[in-house]
Amino acid sequence: MNLDFTPQQLQFREQVRDWLQAHKPSEPRPDDGAEGRAFDLAWQKTLYTGGWAGINWPKAYGGQGFDTFQQLIFLMEYAKSGAPGDHYRFNGLNLAGPTIIACGDEEQRKTHLPPILKGDVIWCQGFSEPSAGSDLASLKTRAIVDGDELIVTGSKIWTSWARFADWQQLLVRTDADAPKHAGISWVINRMDNPGMEIRPIHDMAGGSDLHEVFYDEVRIPLKNIVGGINNGWRVSMAQLSFERGTAFMPSQIETQKTIEELIELARNTRLDDGRLAIDDDHIAFQLAKLRAETRSLLAMTLLGISRNERSGMPGPEGSMLKLFQSELYKRITTVALDIVGADRARLSGLTGRWPQAFLGSFANTLGGGTSEVMRNIIGERYLGLPK
Ligand SMILES: Cc1cc2nc3c(=O)[nH]c(=O)nc-3n(C[C@H](O)[C@H](O)[C@H](O)COP(=O)(O)OP(=O)(O)OC[C@H]3O[C@@H](n4cnc5c(N)ncnc54)[C@H](O)[C@@H]3O)c2cc1C
């Protein structure tokens, strides 16, 4: 692929840069869930009003219809600008939205896509169950057809942001007698639907954004099934290809900035023996290696974008990127703890940016498919190894 930007693309980059500089929030995102939700929605509204929401979504549903390279330029400038991350907006923008664009009908697109871009709603994902994580097709939450509705009973776990969400992409078993991949449906569910109970789970980093969600005869209109009844596995695979392909693109690009910030930290932090961290051979070597690896990650991201541009859908190489990025981030935050001092970090209760990033880095290697599962996919689909 040609990596030189055209004069038009350079002009576009200037526009993005200037707009972000002028409009990005000056205050940090609040930690509190309800305040965080309000902050995320307000920022999404600002993006929408400014003409920067849904960069590559079709114009018919409120998007900008820009090409993949403009999307890339936008993401690169976005990461550089320090504008807020997706946070609670993640599911709607990166998973539910693209899935409804790819697999939904016209009514579903018109109803659900514009509110995501306008910053009116938050989405969450109800896929995993206590006995169905990596083996997602084993899910048991059942849905019985009753007239023009589904009646859903069962439970989900690890649902990020459930109690702050308005809508949910939910996987249910609509045919208990069919082979396990064939009896599943992907449905759109309201989070205030009667019969639902949401309980937060507290994680090791001190957060409570994960949840258990229980369904007791919850009624969902049949028209909320995306892609047809019992066709949910195909829809989920399209969605997981976004989750592993394009959804993490912003964090892949953000990693370029994180490593430079870590190098800066090493230049300004003294170790227990009084030397600057950057003068420690082991730390300097690790930083050089990590910087080289982040460059490789960027090259892989660009290659993936170039392939997506030709095929129209993210391919299995998304699994390589997801694996590489999440494991790389774990190594970056481990070196960060070497620099700030693991003992000092422990004494201060693991608060502060880098200890929190270290604790959070484990989640990235699980959510969206674990590293082991990514390795299986790469082995089987890419390298042609036996199961
Ligand atoms: C921060 C975070 C956010 C999440 N958000 C959501 C969400 O919003 N919605 C949602 O539905 N889910 C969510 N999840 C759940 C996530 O998708 C699952 O945790 C993940 O799919 C793994 O499933 P599991 O936890 O049941 O582990 P299991 O599948 O039970 O795996 C346990 C261990 O066995 C390994 N393993 C399993 N199968 C294989 C195999 N075939 N080969 C080799 N090793 C294997 C795994 O790698 C893992 O180490 C989230 C998880 C995290 C950590």
Defining key terms:
387 residues, alpha+beta, Butyryl-Coa Dehydrogenase, subunit A, domain 1, Butyryl-CoA Dehydrogenase, subunit A, domain 2, four-stranded mixed β-sheet, 13% strand
Word description of this protein:
The chain has twelve helices and eight strands. With 387 residues, it is α+β, with helices and mostly antiparallel strands. It has three domains: 7-122, Butyryl-Coa Dehydrogenase, subunit A, domain 1 (Orthogonal Bundle); 124-230, Butyryl-CoA Dehydrogenase, subunit A, domain 2 (Beta Barrel); 248-382, Butyryl-CoA Dehydrogenase, subunit A, domain 3, CATH 1.20.140.10. Helix 9 runs antiparallel to helix 11 (353-364). The protein starts with 6 loop residues before the first helix and ends in a 5-residue tail after the last helix. The structure holds flavin-adenine dinucleotide (FAD). Residues 124-128, 133-134, 158-160, 210, 363, 366-367, 369-370, 372-373, 376 line the site of flavin-adenine dinucleotide.
How much of the sequence lies in strands comes to 5-15%
Shape: globular
State the major sheet.
Answer: 4 strands, mixed
Q: List bound small molecules.
A: flavin-adenine dinucleotide
Model regions low in confidence, pLDDT < 50 over at least 5 residues: none
**Side-by-side strand order of the widest sheet:** 1-4-5-8
Q: Would you count the extended β strands for me?
A: 8
Count of the domains: 3
| Helical segment count | 12
